[in-house]
Specification:
Blueprint: E1 2-6, H1 10-22, E2 26-30, H2 33-42, E3 47-51, H3 59-68, E4 75-80, H4 84-92, E5 97-101, H5 105-120, E6 126-129, E7 132-135, E8 140-143, E9 146-149, H6 152-163, H7 171-176, H8 187-200, E10 206-209, E11 213-216
Parallel strand pairs: 1-2, 1-3, 3-4, 4-5
Antiparallel strand pairs: 6-7, 7-8, 8-9, 10-11
Length: 218
Amino acid sequence: MKILLVEDDVRLVESLRPQLNKAGYVVEWSDNGIDGEFMAMEEDFDCIILDLGLPQKNGLDVLTTLRQKKIQTPILILTARDSWQERVDGLKAGADDYVGKPFHYEELLARLEAILRRQFGQADNTLEIQGLVLDLDRQQAHQGERTVQLTAIEFKLLRYLMSHPGKIISKTTLSEHVYEEEQLKDSNVIEVYINRLRHHFSKSLIVTYRGQGYKLGG
């Protein structure tokens, strides 16, 4: 899953970004409202974490603009802990949820995961397709009595595919949701990891559509 973090507090970003990476998220970062708004409109993100107190253009204006432009990406806003008015204004402008600063990372992660569950119609923190169950907390996959502990890349790749069942997804899109921008790999690397997932489970799990991409389950 690919997250846009729009936050000007560098120390907060430096502590938050690796924790989100560990949880299986690809994180792109902007430190101001103008660049953050541009990135949100130009790139494909699964969720946006948006601070309201931003330089150049404040977060509430960014949020309002994105919703006016029909950008439907879920947005989690960061507000001042004691500012109930910020929270109300943010929710009215189209935010999906909020976290007050300072916050515990576990709370932010739980709210982020809840937003994504709603986005993809999940009842809990698992994904299940054709007898394959992906545990998002443990980054494990279960098939029958077998349990496979996935590598970070395998987990991100399988999670994205399972979140978009029945959809053909290009190598480029998969790469963007598995690697951060400065780490983007040759698309052939994705094929290597696709084959690893097939080896773990079955060759028929992921079908190749030549010149188009991959689809889970045919």
